[in-house]
Amino acid sequence: MTDADLDAAADALRAGDLVVYPTETVYGLGADATDPAAVERVFAAKDRDREKPVSMAVPDVETALEYTAPTAEERAFMHEFLPGPVTLLVDRTDALPDVLTAGGERVGVRVPDHEMALDLLERFEPITATSANVSGTGSVRELDELGDPIREAAAVLIDGGRTPGGGSTVVDVSTGEILRRGALADEIDAWL
User: Fold this and answer.
1) N or C: which end of the chain has fewer CB within 10 A?
2) Which CATH number fits domain 3-191: 3.90.870.10, 3.40.50.300, 3.40.1550.20, 3.40.50.1970?
3) What are the angstrom distances between the C-alpha of 128 and each of 85, 98, 121, 148, 175?
4) pLDDT one-digit tens code per residue, 15-57
5) What share of the chain is helix, strand, coil (3-state, %, to 5)?
């Protein structure tokens, strides 16, 4: 993967197109998280229930603060566990469309601990952070595993080789709950 490939992916995101990118867990399906039409294309490609929100990825905690309104405790959590295989639920701002959050007031925030994902996010943010698979099918750890609906919907595929797999741990600090256990869940339990 070259800088030109990452630039092409960022250009595709700016144009409202979808991209597939590697993370420290599985491949993600990215679109401009602030563009309702682009986010809708993510739902369509995944055949995802519109009542299930999609998370967003940003390059760092500071950027997350441009789109969210975390409490002091949530900020402390972000600084402790991001970047990493963690999705934190926080209040969103009006910069994010309702379609991203299924109309809810909270959004999942990811800062992937993966060099290519971060290089892409330095070029364009925020992007959707959802697995690059049709809903109900297995997560994708290599581009060869991509299903046709996702492959056909994406303008650019960023090949980062095989990813480690697993899912991010989803956390709601406001309630002290882990909503989905994944990597770092024991450390997060201890922190909570």
Assistant:
1) C
2) 3.90.870.10
3) 15, 13, 11, 20, 24
4) 999 999 999 999 999 999 999 999 999 999 999 999 999 999 9
5) 35, 20, 45
